[in-house]
Amino acid sequence: MESSIALVKAKLGSDHAYGFLAEDRGQILGSIFLNVFPGTPVTAIGPLSADSAVKGGVGRRLMEAALEQSRKRGFEAVRLVQSPSHLRSLALYTKSGFAVREPLVLVHGRAREVPSQREHLVRLAASEDVEACNNIAPRAHGFARKFELSPAIDSGWRPL
Question: How confident is the model at residue 148 (pLDDT cuts 50, 70, 90)?
Answer without folding.
Answer: confident
